[in-house]
Amino acid sequence: MNPASENTEKKLIVVGGGLAGSEAAWQAAERGVDVTLYEMRPHKLTPAHETGQLAELVCSNSLGSLKAISAPGLLKEEMRRLGSLIIRTAEACAVPAGGALAVDRDRFAKNISECIKKHPRITVLHEEVKEIPPDGTIAVVSSGPLTSEALTESLKAAAQTEHLYFYDAISPILEADGIDMEIVFRASRYGKGGDDYLNCPMNEAEYDRFYEALMAGERVEAKSFEKIKYFEGCLPIEVLAERGKKTPLFGPMKPVGLVDPRTGEQPFAVVQLRAENRFGTAYSLVGFQTKMTWPEQRRIFKMIPGLEDANFLRLGSLHRNTFLNSPRILSESLQLRTQPGLFLAGQIVGVEGYVESASMGYLAGMNAARLLSGKTTAVPPENTAHGALIQYITKSNPTFFQPINSNFGLFPPVAPMIKGRYKMKKTERYQKIVERALDELSLWITQYGILNDISK
Ligand SMILES: Cc1cc2nc3c(=O)[nH]c(=O)nc-3n(C[C@H](O)[C@H](O)[C@H](O)COP(=O)(O)OP(=O)(O)OC[C@H]3O[C@@H](n4cnc5c(N)ncnc54)[C@H](O)[C@@H]3O)c2cc1C
User: How far is the CA of 388 from the centre of ligand 1 (A)?
Assistant: First the structure.
């Protein structure tokens, strides 16, 4: 199917009726745009979806924490205030889940499907789209981490092959505040690259213990369609360790070119940390992508000298995922730089998670509607959860770009750090980030009239 012929100035094409596409279609339609939403299921299923319903949850039925003072909780609150269909429906279909927003998945998907299909401005076509809509079309492509092969080929061409990836290889990210700078030292190998890296030094006995723990660490089984042929440069650290006790010492844990200023000697092994943002408030473990379970990652990575009190902002993972190198190809309004009017949304832009995907759908759908109404696009402030995600996916260093979930490490700091430590308590700091975000969101909503065009 080539949707090109159907589009005129006042119409929007949305490709993919998952979390992002459903939200995008709804937001545009509520702003007076006629939307055609293409969803290939049930005629063609992805390896993870099982039904023809829109917004089907492929795995867990949890949309994550509801805690007010948490990054996922903040993202939900912002979406609530923005009038998100996904959040409103999730809350209507909630099942008891402690502090999390979990849903009855069938009711949730059926409710979303019903809302979308009953909307007078939305037409749903259950067809596979094989090519991205051509130049001059206003469209949102939100075909997800399991985009069909034909469309992937077309995306490859539009994004240039080297900017489209097929799986993610995520290393854990931790807060700078929990790193013990009495143990860890700043240096780059052979002094090249200044003080960009933090190095956690290990002696032989520490390495032995760490290696044993890596070998014994419990792993997450890959799904059948996720049997990944790892690239050599992206092997999980535990797979590398399986190749031999010394193998990590020639890979990410190699100590050569590094001298611990406290001993004047080269350590036996090192774990390097690289800044995750321009504020220096979060660091990732270089080359530590992993398929170990989350409790095991916390336990084992805290054995690394200097990381005993580490506060993990996100844990490592490795799975099948189609995503773009967004910093290279997308503008802050999620339009392809080489094809303005073509918005990308959802997990494909490099966010991770149901709610994060829906939030990108919101922004793409809302901005596509603005564009169709002759307005300027509206980018949320970087101090909001939406804005922090946008900054990450469009401004990160493209060389190291990997998908991200909403976490406090993405936000500009609210307090200064002195010698690598905050003076303000973590709870107070997080509270301030949340308050600042919600204040700025309100101002943005008013300033850009984000909710003004919504039909009552
Ligand atoms: C196996 C797996 C498990 C996951 N588990 C979780 C989890 O437990 N919790 C969590 O928060 N996140 C999870 N994620 C990550 C992510 O949050 C979800 O994948 C989320 O659904 C992404 O939203 P999306 O709208 O971008 O994509 P999707 O929800 O996948 O929606 C994309 C839609 O596009 C359709 N489509 C694809 N190609 C075409 C085409 N050519 N033409 C028309 N339609 C097309 C698909 O059928 C699909 O309905 C998981 C991801 C995967 C792959």
Answer: 22
